[in-house]
Amino acid sequence: MARKTRVEVSVEPADTFAARLIACIRDEGPIAVNDYMRLCNAHYYATRDPFGAAGDFTTAPEISQVFGELIGAWCADYWQRMGAPDPVLLVELGPGRGTLMADALRATRRVPGFHQALKLHLVETSPVLRRAQQEKLAPYDPRFHDHFAKVPPGPMLLIANEFIDALPVVQFDRRDGAWHQRQIVFDETTGTLVLETEPQPSRMNPILPQAQDGAVLEERTLSPEAYIALRLHDYGGAALIIDYGYSPSQSADTLQAVRQHRPVPITESPGETDLTAHVDFGHLAHVAAGNRAAVYGPITQAQFLIALGIEARAAALAKNATPAQQEAIRSGCRRLIEPAQMGTLFKVLALTQQGGPVPAGFATT
């Protein structure tokens, strides 16, 4: 059985981290895929700004300001319909550079009482990204937390955009009617890390037990949907989860590594690539509902943004823009909603307190 590594996460040069991790696996044996992913991503995010053309990937808030503006409008609308509680916690998980939140707050500055009521809480572990968020959001006096559990109690509006995909997954192969866990091992012949499958069946009991041999299953560890659901049940509010993924639950091998906007092997340059896996929205919704949240969706990102008025907002921005700016606005919004871009692969799920208002964008789901 793959063990848990004793490597500690620390901010250090890339070659030092990779050498230490490889030496640990070589000397002490294989580690589970989820532990490898957890350690590598912790180092990766702690040591860089990975966003934009100069980084490894680009997220929706960096593509168009309209994205964050519509999310802000969604939050303010729900706050009003839930009775405008004061205070209300505005929480973002993995805020990146703070771009989404800055756009959301700019778009809602004229909503009566909203900014006076909100208390901004950001769940972020990266010191590099915390500095960027503090600089961009300083007027709103953000409070930072390493984990969602440390966010104080109270009515809450929560945003998680491309956050859950970076949380660790356990991987299993189906062989001879049993699930076998995948692990990262050191190959003595090549002197590199490789992905292999444990010969013995796993003691864990994954979902989809009737899957056929050859199937690959991923189960996410440390995912926060149960805690979010319970918090909403106890104090009220809503949560918006946006990510790429699938529904209903299925067997899938989606673990991937990206560097400089290109896919690379997951064992290449440990701690220097972005490791992610698609989100199982079916499982996420099931867990949230089992923890007493009302669940809406998932729907596609295109459906959600169109329902919120992305086309009207883009047209309004274009009125006073130069021709080059108009094209940038149109192309950015197309990228967010077109099926060949982010429109279909990305899903949106909303959670609320049971009995609460139906959130905007989900009236027909």
Characterize this entry briefly.
The protein is α/β, with parallel strands linked by helices and 365 residues long.
Describe this structure in words.
- Helices cover 35% and strands 24% of the residues.
- It has 365 residues and is of the alpha/beta class.
- The chain has a single domain, classed as Rossmann fold (3-Layer(aba) Sandwich).
- A hairpin with a 4-residue loop joins strand 7 (178-187) and strand 8 (192-197).
- The longest helix is centred in the first third of the chain and has 17 residues, at 65-81.
Key phrases:
365 residues, five-stranded antiparallel beta sheet, alpha/beta, Rossmann fold, 12 helices
Roughly what percent helix?
A: 25-40%
Overall shape: globular
What's the gyration radius in Å?
21 Å
Low-confidence blocks of residues: none
* Helical stretch tally: 12
Largest sheet, described in full?
Answer: 8 strands, mixed
Structural class: alpha/beta
CATH topology-level name: Rossmann fold
> Strand percentage, roughly?
15-25%
CATH class: Alpha Beta
H and E order: HEHHHEHHEHEEEEEEHEEEEEHEHHHE
**What is the strand tally?**
16
Give the mean pLDDT: 92
Total domains: 1
- Corresponding CATH architecture: 3-Layer(aba) Sandwich
First-last Cα distance: 43 Å
Detail the topology: elements first, then pairings.
Layout (H helix, E strand, L loop, with lengths): L13 H15 L2 E2 H14 L13 H4 L1 H17 L6 E6 L5 H9 L6 H4 E6 L3 H11 L5 E3 L10 E6 L7 E7 L2 E10 L4 E6 L18 E5 L4 H11 L1 E10 L9 E4 L2 E3 L9 E3 L2 E2 H10 L2 E8 H8 L1 H10 L3 H15 L8 E8 L12
Parallel strand pairs: 2-3, 2-5, 3-4, 5-10, 10-14
Antiparallel strand pairs: 1-7, 6-7, 6-9, 7-8, 10-16, 11-12, 11-13, 15-16
Helix pairs in contact: 4-5, 8-9, 11-12
